[in-house]
Amino acid sequence: MNKMKLPKFLNTRLGFFSLLAILFWVKNICAYLFEFNLGIESVRQYFILFINPIATTLFLLSIALYVKRPKVSYITMMVIYFLMTLLLFANISYYREFTDFITINTILGAGKVASGLGESALRLFRIHDVLYWLDFVVLIVLFARKKITLDERPVRARMALAMSTLSVMIFFGNLFLAEVDRPELLTRTFSRDYLVKYLGINAFTAYDGVQTYQASQVRAEASPNDMDEVANYVSDHYAAPNDDLYGIAKGKNVIYIHLESTQQFLIDYKLKDENGVEHEVMPFINSLYHDNQTFSFDNFYHQVKGGKTSDAETLMDNSLFGLNQGALMTQLGGKNTFESAPNILEQVDGYTSAVFHGNDGTFWNRNETYKHWGYDYFFSKEYYDVNEDNSFQYGLHDKPFFEQSAKYLEQLQQPFYAKFIAVSNHFPYSQFTGDEAGFPLAQTDDETINGYFATANYLDSAVEEFFNYLKASGLYENSVIVLYGDHYGISESRNTSLAPLLGKTEDTWTSYDDAQMQKVPYMIHVPGQTKGGINHTYGGQVDALPTLLHLLGVDTTNYIQLGQDLLSPEHDQVVAFRNGDFVSNKYVYHKGSLYDTATGTAITEPTAEQQQEVDSLKDQVSQQLATSDQINSGDLFRFYTKSGLKELDTTQFNYKDAETQLKEAAEKAGADSTSVLSQNNGVSTADLYKTQTYQEIHGTATADSEAAEK
Which CDD domains does the entry mention (predicted)? Predict the structure, then answer.
């Protein structure tokens, strides 16, 4: 080593600064490519990945350039470099166990993290991990052998400032490219994976720190008195259940089927192909909609905003709105206390709960949020056989998703509350190829609209197959099956292109029509009862939880729920949109325009009486939204005890080993095990699941399939 000569540049402060920056960049790239599963899908994403460590690395290391004393400057540089490496390595180790990245809350609760890792902590380390730390040993030796010496000359302040400025410029360039590839990256914060993929570990940690601080400030100012105000509001707006329907589904399983991007106009819709032949888009779901065993709602609206699917889950499971900006599940889902459906049903009636979703568990922060909502199991992508042939960018396609879920569903102890999140009917509604091709495309100038009907038809077929399995396995008769659309599928900017398919023109399309396009399907199918039918009550997703709980015979008078039972004669029929617009059974207020709900006629000059009614409705909507924000931002459920629910211990949930937990639950129950698998004497019902492609169902020739693939 005595004969080894290093470049003289390394004996300058800027040279040593550059060496550390390059070394840390290499460590980041190695972690990105070999430690994390970030789902890189394009050359542009690889480019962003390769540049994203640069900005924050230069910015943090440049802090040492402002220090004039040589020894202190070098020590500062090494300490910063050590802390960055420690943060990176901590994320690598954490990711191996939890398939997620460390948040500020995780760092602050390090004791809980260590508890979560348990005795397996040492098993997280790999032999190659030494490479992340080897450079420290080499640098120490080089300094000790005088191969690298301290540069006594201070870096000019102008140079230090230039380096900091350069890093900021690089960061904004990085952010611009990230927003081009993933719009609304920071405002919607889909997933921590996305933030790391596009901005890097350091930037993600800083961003999470800012969010955590802002949330903690609001949370710190909240008090039990705030909860008293909320409780009074909820009590004043409580709608008593329908006596004829209360408890008709007592003790039954609950199966939620999340109909991705499905809008109400698809119900009973028939698409004409290029030859004028009509094709029913969702024949099976239509049959459920008209079944007298189903409570169907034709004036049911989504109420989501930036959180989209995650907002819909928040509304359906909690009877709370999402945030006005961003997504509640990503910002507060892993921090706040909730009164969620799975927790209520577990504590009141002993329900088991589970979510099934063929995408990454970290998307929308589900892996953390579901623990705070009380879900016992979360079957995410890692529990499924996912490959290029049966999936796309948003996860496993619906038919294999439902089919592969059967082996887990049959092991749940009954009664259970299970949610299935389908994804195939998701923007951009890409055309199916191969054996699933065949349903006609719409004939418009918008490819997104053209493909929407075919993916909805595929979803319909997948749901029908799942229902067939429920019947074959014996689950159907003892279950309440709820189907709901989470949000619009065709955005407002495309509505005028859609208009001709709905019997309208671009010229006659108004904001009233835009408001009607926010309707989504909502059906509660209760096998064995015949009191259903199509209900014209105006309502939204916030009303779903009290409606369901009353059918299950659960008294909700002491729960904090902002919605009202849709089947109650006391329901007020006002639907608040997250932006403050609203729909009622009398008025539609959308984008500053007022309409008559029944006729769609614009009310340009309301009478004094009409204006008074509209102002009252605006106040009502504003109060409901403000109450939700007050609950969420202040984490007010931590103060509420009147519900009688015990505090939820989120550390009891481990979504990494669900199969073992299912077996242990059955063994613990012994002869009293209520799972379908146990009731079937250990013989799986998964083989009863039958699935067919579009080609097989419709008898299309194989040649057509091959042509579609080409």
Answer: LTA_synthase
- 309 marked among binding-site residues: yes
Do 334 and 103 contact (CB within 8 A), yes or no? yes
426 is in an annotated binding site: yes
- Alpha-carbon distance of 394 to 413, in angstroms, equals 29
Longest dimension (CA), the chain: 95
Burial of 129 from C-beta contacts in 10 A (0-12 / 13-18 / 19+): middle
486 in a known ligand binding site:
yes
* Burial of 687 (C-beta count, 10 Å sphere; 0-12/13-18/19+): exposed
C-alpha pair distances (Å), 344 with each of 90, 419, 546, 646, 662: 36, 15, 11, 10, 21
In this predicted model, what pLDDT tens digit does every residue of 651-692 receive, in sequence order? 999 999 999 999 999 999 999 999 999 999 999 999 999 999
Check whether 700 is labelled as a binding-site residue.
no
- Rounded to 5°, the CA angle 186-364-519 comes to 95
pTM for this structure?
Answer: 0.78
Q: What is the pLDDT of residue 213?
A: 84
Q: Which of 189, 309, 448, 627 is catalytic?
A: 309
Which one-letter amino acid corresponds to residue 220? A
- Domain map (residue ranges) of the chain: 8-216, 249-505+518-695
Q: How confident is the model at residue 382 (pLDDT cuts 50, 70, 90)?
A: very high
CA distance 689 to 382: 21
Superfamily covering domain 249-505+518-695 = Alkaline Phosphatase, subunit A (3.40.720.10)
Question: According to the annotation, is 260 in a ligand binding site?
Answer: yes
Cα–Cα distance, 330 to 357 (Å, whole number): 17
Active site residue 352: no
